C-alpha cells in the first residue's frame, strides 16, 4: 500500500509528537510508531521538566546550561545546550497553555522541585528547577501533545514498524514499514523524513530503556551512511 505526505515522522514520543505538531501547521504529516503514541517511552519521565522559571527561588537559564553541559561530561553540543536552556521556560508555558496539568504553588505559579543535576550559581548547590505534574509528567506530556496533534489533523499509523529509509539521489524521500497487526508492507513517500525513535540504550547490558526502544532510527541511518540531521531535505 502506498501513502504520500509532506513529512513522515518515525516515532511518537515527546520529540516526534512535538515535531508533528509544528510541521502540521505547514503541510500534511504522518507519524509512524510501533506503539500507540501515549505508550511511548516519554511516559517513563516521571520527575519533571527542567526550566529556569524561578517560581520558587532564584534561577537563571545560564545555570541550567552549565548543568546540561557538565552533566554530559562536556561532550554536549554547547550551542544546542544554550538553546535548550534559554527556551525551556517558554516551552513549559506553551505546554501549560495547551492543557498540561502542572502542579501549582498556592499563588498559582507552576510549582518546581529539586531534581538530580539541577544547581544554582554554576554548581554551588541544588535548586528547585523541575516543573512537574505529580509523578506522571512524561505521560501528561504525551497526552497533551497527542491531543494537539489530533486537533491539527496529524495522521497516525499506530503499530507500524519501519523497515528502511527510501533514498533518491542521496536525499531521503520516504520509508517502508510493515503493519504489525496484518504483516502488510506499506510505502510512505515524503518530502522530509524525521527519525524520532529514541536512542540505542538497549545495546547495553544495563539500561533503563524499555524493551520497545530498539534504536531503529540510528541503525537505519548508519546503515545508509546518512547523518540523522540530513534526513530533512525539502520540506514545503
What does this structure look like?
The protein contains five helices and nine strands, in the order βαββααββαββββα. With 236 residues, the chain is of the alpha/beta class. Strand 1, helix 1 and strand 2 form a beta-alpha-beta unit. It has helices at 14-23, 61-71, 78-98, 137-151, 216-224; strands spanning 2-10, 29-33, 49-50, 112-120, 125-131, 155-158, 160-168, 171-179, 185-195. Helix 1 (14-23) runs parallel beside helix 4 and helix 2 (61-71) crosses helix 3. The longest helix has 21 residues, at 78-98. It starts with a strand and ends in a 12-residue tail after the last helix. Residues 229-236 have low confidence and may be disordered. A six-stranded mixed sheet has the order 6-2-1-9-8-7. It is 28% helix and 28% strand.
